[in-house]
């Protein structure tokens, strides 16, 4: 008994390490002091007239609601279908808003000329039809010299492309330029004829390229008809040569006849 009393006195002197708090049943426990709040509070920001349609109000847009700037950006897209659709959208926009072409023709040509050497055949054909049906007819009343010079560097680059299909299409583009601006051939005649000579000498055409080569040569014929030529001088020189031949025949010395031929 004496030992038990002594041990209980020692425990009272040491004190209690953890004091147990008695909670009443049914009462909610308070959060601990180191608890982290996980509540998320958000507020809605309402901006009136903050929509794509309102931003494009009053601007010229295509059937798909794209502006000219957006369409020109899409002409450099990595997907050929997107590039083709962008060219079609530009055509539709210019047909609906012809004034846009006159206002932005240099910016338009600066982007369109990049597609002359496009790797996709459909994109090149779409560009050709766009230039033929919309761009060139819409700019025929303006000074086309600077406008055409922007294209020529890219056409010459395409004429030396590794792909034969791209090279032949480049001559088709140049033929289109000559049709709408004939002085362009006289400005670049030497370089054009040299490229024609190169493509004919290399003879790298497959059977399916023969028709395209024929179209390219048709453009060459058109270019040759634009060369300056004085018809009267040609006719007079021809008549002089013909008269000279007659004189030579008239004064041809008589040769002794071969007895065996008698």
Automatic annotation (TrEMBL):
Q: List, alphabetically, the GO terms of the cellular component aspect.
A: nucleus
Where does the record place the Pre-rRNA-processing protein Ipi1 N-terminal domain? 146-208
Q: Which InterPro entries match?
A: ARM-like, ARM-type_fold, Ipi1_N
Record region (Disordered):
1-37
Q: Which UniProt keywords apply?
A: Nucleus
* Gene3D superfamilies associated with the record: Leucine-rich Repeat Variant
Task: Cite the record's Basic residues compositional bias ranges.
Answer: 1-13
Highest taxon, organism lineage: Eukaryota
Spell out the Pfam families in the cross-references. Ipi1_N
> Has the keyword Nucleus been applied to this entry?
yes
Subcellular location, record wording: Nucleus
Location (main, coarse) = nucleus
> What's this protein's family per the entry?
Belongs to the IPI1/TEX10 family.
Q: Which PANTHER family match?
A: REGULATOR OF MICROTUBULE DYNAMICS PROTEIN (PTHR16056), TESTIS-EXPRESSED PROTEIN 10 (PTHR16056:SF2)
The name on file for this protein is Pre-rRNA-processing protein Ipi1 N-terminal domain-containing protein
Native source species: Vitis vinifera (Grape)
């Amino acid at each position: 008994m004496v030992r038990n009393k002594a041990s209980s006195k020692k425990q009272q002197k040491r004190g209690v390490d953890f004091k147990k708090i008695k909670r009443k049943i049914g009462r909610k426990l308070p959060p601990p002091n180191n608890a982290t709040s996980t509540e998320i509070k958000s507020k809605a920001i309402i901006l009136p007239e903050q929509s794509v349609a309102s931003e494009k109000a009053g601007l010229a847009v295509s059937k798909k609601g794209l502006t000219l700037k957006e369409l020109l950006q899409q002409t450099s897209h990595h997907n050929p279908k997107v590039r083709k659709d962008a060219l079609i959208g530009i055509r539709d926009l210019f047909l609906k808003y012809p004034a846009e072409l006159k206002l932005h023709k240099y910016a338009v040509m600066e982007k369109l000329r990049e597609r002359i050497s496009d790797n996709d055949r459909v994109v090149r054909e779409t560009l050709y039809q766009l230039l033929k049906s919309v761009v060139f007819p819409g700019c025929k009343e303006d000074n086309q010299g600077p406008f055409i010079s922007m294209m020529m560097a890219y056409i010459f680059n395409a004429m030396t492309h590794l792909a034969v299909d791209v090279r032949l299409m480049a001559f088709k583009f140049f033929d289109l330029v000559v049709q709408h601006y004939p002085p362009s051939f006289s400005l670049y005649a030497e370089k054009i004829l040299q490229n024609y000579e190169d493509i004919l000498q290399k003879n790298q055409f497959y059977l399916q390229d023969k028709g395209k080569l024929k179209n390219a040569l048709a453009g060459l014929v058109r270019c040759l008809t634009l060369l300056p030529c004085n018809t009267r001088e040609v006719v007079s020189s021809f008549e002089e040569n013909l008269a000279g031949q007659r004189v030579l025949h008239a004064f041809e010395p008589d040769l002794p006849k071969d007895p065996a031929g008698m």
